[in-house]
Design brief:
Blueprint: H1 2-11, H2 14-29, H3 40-52, H4 54-61, H5 70-86, H6 92-120
Helix pairs in contact: 2-6, 3-5, 5-6
Length: 129
């Protein structure tokens, strides 16, 4: 199963692989470094929780499919709106992180909403070599 998942990941365009492995995932996981900041635990739950919800999808599909967009929609939309309009006040490093997280997840949602719609309309095959 893990070989199939890895092959599916490697089938995606290189820029998507770089985006997921070196930007999207690490930036959201970095929320763990700020759990002691105001609302830091909630930021971590929303940021990381949306990614963790993809694990059953990846395992079920044995790869990466457009269904992976769905678990991001609600938590990251809430997170983006919260950071944009009710940003928790904390250290300068936390503030910088929240800006980076906001931009990162806005970009991701820009892909996720269309992918979720494509999945809804029937594009349900995982990436395969």
């Amino acid at each position: 199963m893990f070989t199939e998942i890895w092959k599916s990941f490697r089938t995606m365009p290189v820029w998507v692989q770089i985006w997921v492995a070196f930007l999207l995932s690490p930036i959201n996981m970095a929320a763990l470094f700020f759990i002691n900041q105001p609302s830091g635990i909630w930021v971590a739950i929303l940021a990381i929780g949306a990614m963790m919800l993809n694990m059953p999808v990846i395992m079920y599909d044995r790869g990466f499919s457009k269904l992976m967009a769905l678990p991001h929609l609600i938590p990251w939309t809430i997170l983006v709106l919260w950071i944009a309009f009710a940003r928790p006040v904390g250290s300068a490093g936390y503030d910088t992180y929240l800006w980076i997280l906001l931009v990162t997840n806005l970009i991701s949602l820009g892909f996720d909403f269309p992918d979720a719609l494509k999945w809804w309309k029937g594009d349900r095959e995982p990436a395969r070599p």
